[in-house]
Amino acid sequence: MSDVNPMDTRRFWLRAALASLGAVALSGCDMVTRSKTAKAVLSSAEGLTRSAQRLLLKPGQLAPEFSEADISPDFKANGSTNPQDAAYLAHLANGFADWRLRIDGLVEHPMSLSLADLKARQARTQITRHDCVEGWSCIGKWTGAPLAPLMREAKLKPEAKYVVFHCMDTMGGGDPYYESIALDDVFHPQSLLAYAMSDQPLSVAHGAPVRLRVERHLGYKQAKYLERIEAVASLEGLGGGKGGYWPDRGYEWYAGI
Ligand SMILES: Nc1nc2c(c(=O)[nH]1)N[C@H]1C(S)=C(S)[C@@H](COP(=O)(O)O)O[C@H]1N2
Ligand SMILES: [Mo]
Hints:
Layout: H1 6-20, E1 23-26, E2 29-32, H2 36-56, H3 86-93, E3 101-105, E4 111-113, H4 115-120, E5 124-132, E6 136-146, H5 147-154, E7 162-167, E8 178-182, H6 183-186, E9 192-197, E10 200-201, E11 211-213, E12 226-232
Parallel strand pairs: 3-12
Antiparallel strand pairs: 1-2, 2-6, 3-4, 5-6, 6-9, 7-8, 7-12, 9-10, 9-11
Bound molecules: ligand MTE and molybdenum atom.
């Protein structure tokens, strides 16, 4: 068994556990029941993953990429899918012409980028699998500006340890959605500021105008409706202090898969 990749073994174990909970097909994506048991299985797998991934993955290792034929016909939308926040609706109404993505915090050169600025940059397209912690997966095709060159241009100060993604949606008027990643993922080649899905401008449901793709992580890290990228030394002063909307509510911050 020495040539068996331990990650494959772990994935097999996870798949087997999920299959035993009863997998069903829905909307062209893999779906498992949203039972408490499914969530418990998934979150214990996340606990395993955090240490397993740190041991097994080299920092630049890529998430698997798929072919056009693998793309899910109907990629599920989840979480906020139609933000009603006034500022978001105003941006949507004028086609995001005045929308800017700010890059600030612990950087030497703060930036403010229009959608056209982002589209004028180097682009990358990747077909990857999105795994939601609720127990479904879809394969989608994303195009966007790689994060690494932008962050090199903004130039992190030495104290910067994390990058925080601030979103425009507030989940029904509550706390704004946000997420954060560490520097290995900031400079990972598959980390994208995605503005297109299946060669079309990103829909509102999937995060228009721009969302993060950080492919070695679970769905809730894939922050939609971006407006600001902030470099910070610590996650303590933000939101509930756990580095993200869902981590503040009990999910693992390190959502590696
Ligand atoms: N701003 C924002 N980003 C978000 C969410 C959200 O509610 N708001 N939900 C997260 C969750 S749990 C998942 S699974 C994915 C869903 O992305 P999709 O709608 O493109 O499938 O977005 C993530 N990013
Ligand atoms: Mo999710």
